Amino acid sequence: MAEAVSKVKELAEKRKVGVRVESGTTKACLKCRWGIEDPTDPSKGQCIGGHRTGMGGIWKRMIHDYYNTTCDHFEEGEVDFRDHV
Q: Closest Cα partner for 23 from 68, 54, 63, 64?
């Protein structure tokens, strides 16, 4: 039983993305290829993460401060349509 719990914790650590707010960051979601601005409120947005969940679905998170949020999966550039469908 203890082995199963430790494996679950280890898997959770691997999947951890580390989305965090850093004021004045140079790696903001605004510049990341995985970030999508909210069309009605540009200060917010979504992160599609560039990877899939364990079930094969698209990983997606709401970003409440699009200009001051960053994560461990930051990649500068533009996303191609085929990368996230």
A: 68
Q: Are strands 45-47 and 35-37 parallel, antiparallel or unpaired?
A: antiparallel
Structural domains in the chain, sorted by start:
2-84 (4.10.490.20)
Bridge partner list, 33: none
- What is the CA angle 80-35-26, rounded to 5? 115
> What is the pTM assigned to this prediction?
0.62
CB-based burial, 40-55: b 16+ in 10 Å, e otherwise: eeeebbbbbbbeeeee
* Tens digit of each residue's pLDDT (9 = 90 or more) over 6-44: 665 565 555 556 778 888 888 888 888 888 888 898 889
Q: Whole-angstrom Cα distance, residue 65 to residue 55?
A: 28
Residue whose structure tokens are 């903001």: 28
**Which residues does residue 76 pair with via DSSP β-bridges, in sequence order?**
32
